[in-house]
Amino acid sequence: MARMLLAVALATFAAAAGAQAYPSQPIRMISPFPPGGSVDIIGRLIADPLAAQLGGRIVVENRGGASGNIGMEAAARAAPDGYTIVLNTIPLVTNKSLFDKLSWDPIRDFAPIGMVATAPHVLVVPAKSPVHSVADLVKLAKERPGKLSYASAGYGTTFHFCAELFKDTTGTFIVHIPYRGGGPALVDTLSGQVDLSFPTLSAALPFIKAGSLRALGVTDFSRSPLLPGTPTLAEAGVKDFQFSQWQALLAPAGTPREIVLRLNAALNAALKTPDIREKFQSQAIEAFPTTPEEAGKFLAGEVTRYARLIKAKGITAE
């Protein structure tokens, strides 16, 4: 019995000592998408401030492909020692429902470190559109079911999910026109080839300010300080509507809790720095600090929410 207690004490001491020495080598942050996307941008924005809080070094590694599945599989299979972490967004919780055979599970295979950021989408119409409010749009869509169209960045993208949630909530039928990326979708919205779309606020903002797109509503719970005159969709009459493109930081399942807590504390401290807040705001992004437990609860809820939508709409991966 005494030997057993000694072994437990030694193991506890070793874990604590390891956590105190952490990090003793560079940390790899996997971005499961190509360079230039939202995950890659936010990963590179937080890498150095997070490393500074930890007193170490973080290297961002892009492992794009298969809608994020290649990078997520690599992260899931990495040693759970705190030296591999991964940043992801909506595909973290949707790929489980979009792909029949997935080698990783968002809940089983990862330990949430914390949420990082949230960014709203915005409902826009071309400047020449006769629609000037959300109420106008809903009325027109109900009067002309199947006659209006919306552009998305492709099947299973945030543009797509946001629009389908809007249709469900408002009881409207608007035709989906998928594009290969957000850029082409935005171009055809600008030209009036489609009637509306739900781009990210950061992508649409220059065109809204230039007067070539009309913003009808932002999709988050609160108004954006970058677009204070535009109501939220909930304020505009779409009750309880909320959609945002969040980012979450995770470690492989089995990573010691002491290290997860150390990473969480460093992440939240980095998110409070004026430099990060300023850089986030310039791109219509807001910090989203949480505990690991709060992040886990949020992500589990998102898995359920999107699974229901994907099943109800018959959405599949391209």
Task: Describe this entry's structure for a reader.
The chain has 318 residues and is α/β, with parallel strands linked by helices. The chain has eleven helices and eleven strands. It has a six-stranded mixed β-sheet with strand order 2-1-3-10-4-11, sandwiched between helices. A three-stranded parallel β-sheet has the order 7-6-8. It is globular, with a radius of gyration of 21 Å. It starts with a helix and ends in a 5-residue tail after the last helix. About 3% of the residues have low confidence.
Helices and strands in order:
Blueprint: H1 2-21, E1 27-31, H2 38-54, E2 58-62, H3 69-77, E3 84-88, H4 91-98, E4 110-120, E5 122-126, H5 134-143, E6 149-152, H6 158-170, E7 175-178, H7 182-191, E8 196-197, H8 201-210, E9 213-218, E10 244-252, H9 257-271, H10 274-282, E11 286-287, H11 292-313
Parallel strand pairs: 1-2, 1-3, 6-7, 6-8
Antiparallel strand pairs: 3-10, 4-10, 4-11, 5-9
**How many strand units?**
11
Give the % helix: 40-55%
Radius of gyration: 21 Å
Shape: globular
Q: Provide the structure class.
A: alpha/beta
- Rounded to the nearest angstrom, the distance between the terminal CA atoms is 59 Å
Supply the number of helical segments.
11
**Fraction of residues in β-strands:** 15-25%
Succession of helices and strands? HEHEHEHEEHEHEHEHEEHHEH
Major sheet strand order: 2-1-3-10-4-11
Q: Please state the average pLDDT score.
A: 92
What's the story with the biggest beta sheet?
A: 6 strands, mixed
- Uncertain stretches: 4-14
